[in-house]
Amino acid sequence: MKNTEGFNFTFYLLIVPVLLWLILLIVLPHIDLFISSFQVDSDTGGKIFTFEHYATFFKNKIYWLTFVNTAAYAIGITVLSFIVTFPVAFYLTKVISKKYSGFLTLLLLIPIWVGELVTVYGWMIILGDHGIINEFLMYTGLIDKPIKMLYSNFSMVVGLLYFSMLFMIVPVMSTLESLDDSLIEAASDLGASKWTIFTKIIIPYSMPGITSGGIIVFMLVIGDFVVPDILGGKSSLWFTEQIYNEFLSTFNWGEGAAFGFLLLVISSFIIWIALKLTGQKLERVGS
Amino acid sequence: MIRSLPNSPLYKYTYRFYIVCFFIFLIIPLVTISVLAFNNSDFIALPWKGFTLDWFFANTDQRTGLFADEDLIQSIVTSIKTAFYVATISTIVGTAAALLFEEEQFRFKSLLYFLALSPLVIPGVILGISILISSTLLGSYLEEKFGWSVEFLSPSFWLVVLGQFSFCATYVMLLVGARLKKFDRSLEEAALSLKATRLESIWYITIPFLRPAIIGAFVVAFLISFSNFNTTIFLIGSDPTLPVDLFSRIKYSSTPVLNAVSFLIVVVITVVALINLFISRKN
User: Fold this and answer.
1) Is B190 domain-assigned?
2) Which helix (H) or strand (E) holds A45?
3) pLDDT (tens digit, 9 = 90+) per residue, A17-49?
4) Is residue A3 a part of any domain in this protein?
């Protein structure tokens, strides 16, 4: 009997902190976000129900255009990060000897842990008018005056790709590691071309890793604020910047809440579609 | 294509060239920052004007080095304190969550598990603003109804800790959960059949087995917290954390002292990573 009572006590000991975490910090805040996106302060100090915040979003071209622009960039960067990192993930897991791959994999993790702000600052120095690239090109005499690279869509893409691509490579590498080399060897012995092996064996096998990586990259990019704000310059249309402004500059929290809620809904929707298209499940993405 | 298959030299060298380019792309921002931290110039850009340690130690009217810059030191201290509390709370709750979802059966388990994973797919900005909204609502409610003014419900140190904890716990849960999947349940059953309580079996059998993962998860939570910006910016009170301080300096007043801080971070992270590699080689 002692055991069964102890079992219950332990169960409550485990579930209470988890429930407090999930209810107080995840569920309730998002309900409050949802409610405040439909509220506006009345003259008497109370709150009134309104669709005004959502109407503002759909009526002003600049808002939804920014939104579409952000989503398009997020999708584009996700695809780009796959293209850029997949050969590297394959090289580190299947081509190079194990002796070096440990060290190189470690090198991949360092920019992640150093943090976004530091690396963004690094790119700011590299791409600036007196940055490494411009100074080098001018030194060699290829150009007379600096090429404008910083504060443009180009520098924004470089920054977004740089900090997000490593979140693609890590899950892809962990699925590729479990791919048995003999599958590839067998296919090659049977006369399959590299392209066939790539599209029929390697890609299907690494799909779970690609999906997890893709989701993480997409969420990081669509929710990012630092890169568009620092590297993107004044004309960059980025949705989180609008949310930031509503909360910290104009203090229009209702409008900001509506923007936030829209971002949450649409990004979840895009991820849901991606999961459906690739036949993956969110539970697997975590692992 | 792979180690065991022959390749044409062209394929091999093109591939290798690409990998080299990739790693140059990867480390060039870190190298640039680090080198320019020692540049004897008042601007963050080139040209190179000679070696100096001014950006670490100087304390003159023209130049304030990292160790003389009280605001910067203060924000580093705030970040370390924040990260310590976040990592501690996240490790405790995240480990509880891992044990709960791996070992217990109860109603609404899959719903709760879904909620526990949701911070992975909620942008940090959204977590920041929703926690800001609900803590402000709760704060003003308590103020009006009972006349209590609860300090940590307005943007402050503890609200930042809560906000960062809300998603760090998920990472801890996943890291500890991954190790728990490899745990041999018959060990717990043996302990239970020898009249240990459930709690005793967790404490003396399961937790020691999980220790490496728990320590790893603590470090990960610490580092995530230390570099977080997106959630923190909405919850911050009067003391900025290092990323928030860096952000405003990068935007409005960048001097090579930023390189000095960044260099320090790069060095610390590299050392931690090398220690980690060394330990995992040994095991």
Assistant:
1) yes
2) none
3) 999 999 998 999 999 889 888 887 776 767 778
4) no
